Amino acid sequence: VVYVFTECDFSFFPGFGFCYSVIKGPTNATVLAGSEARFNCTVSLGWVILIWLSNGNPVLTVINSQGAVETSDRFTSKNYTSSDSFTSELIIRNTQLSDSGKIECSTQKPNESSFAFLSVQVNGSLFIKNSTLTVTENKTVEIVCEALGWAPAPDITWMTNDTFIDKSRYVTQQSQESNGLHNALSILTLTPTDTEVLTCLADIEALPNPQIATVTVIFCNSTI
After folding, report:
1. Sheet containing 37-44: which strands, arranged edge to edge?
2. Of 134, 132, 126, nearest to 153 (Cα)?
3. What would the pLDDT profile of 172-221 be if each residue is shown by its tens digit?
4. Three-class SS string for the chain?
5. Most confident listed range (114-123, 159-168, 188-197)
6. Phi, psi of 94 (to 5 degrees)
7. What is the Cα 27 distance to its own chain's centre?
8. Which residues contact 54 (CB under 8 A, 6 or more apart)?
C-alpha cells in the first residue's frame, strides 16, 4: 500500500498536526517606554507550536501540548481558545527603547508567519527657565523652551492665550545623543504689546496629550 499525503494529511500521524494557518497576525503598536505592549496572533486549530520573535530573536514559545514556555519576566502571554481558533497574546512588560522593531508570530511552517512593528517612545522633560518675564514697551524678547531626553524628537509648537502661534515666529533645533535620545531647543521671538501667557507644547505619537511648559510675560508700559 502506498500512501500519498498532502500537507494536511500529516495529521494521520499522532502528535503531528500541520493543517492549520495564521488567521490574523499582530498589528502595529506605539507605546511609551515603561508601559506594556500587547500583540495578538490567531491560528486555526491543529497548530503544534507558536513562536514569538522580537527583532528576529525568540522571546516566547507556546506549545499546544504544554502551554507557554517563558524565559523572561518581561515577555509573558495569555491564551484564548474558541471553537475554531487559538489566539496567543504576547505581553511585553516594562517596554524599553531597544524593544522597538519587528514583532513576529511564527508557526514554523513555510510562509506561515505574520509580523507587526513596535515603536517604543520616550517622554522626556520640557521646561522654560523663567516662569515669569517682565518686558517693557517696544522691546523684543526671546523665550527659550528646552526638551531633553525624548524619542523620537518631539514636535514643538507654541501658543499664546490658547491660540497657536505662527511657526514663522519661532525656530526649533534638534540633536541626538549617543544613547539614541533626542533633544530640542525652540526659541520664540516676540515684541509683546500686552501681558500674555505663553505655552510651549511638546508632542509625540504615544502621548495622549502634549507635555507643556508655560511662562507669563508681563507687559510694562514705559510711559507709566
Report:
1. 22-24, 37-44, 85-92, 75-81
2. 126
3. 999 999 999 999 999 999 998 899 999 999 999 999 999 999 999 998 87
4. CCCCCCCHHHHHCCCCCCCCCEEECCCCEEEECCCCEEEEEEEECCCCEEEEEECCEEEEEEECCCEEEECECCEEEEEEECCCEEEEEEEECCCCHHHCEEEEEECCCCCCEEEEEEEEEECCEEEECCCEEEEECCCCEEEEEEEEEEECCCEEEEEECCEECCHHHEEEEEEECCCCCEEEEEEEEECCCCCEEEEEEEECCCCCCCEEEEEEEEEECCCC
5. 114-123
6. 50, 55
7. 13
8. 75, 92, 99, 101, 102, 103, 104, 118
The model carries a pTM of: 0.83
Domains of the chain (ranges; CATH) run: 22-121 (2.60.40.10), 125-220 (2.60.40.10)
Cell 522597538 locates to 100
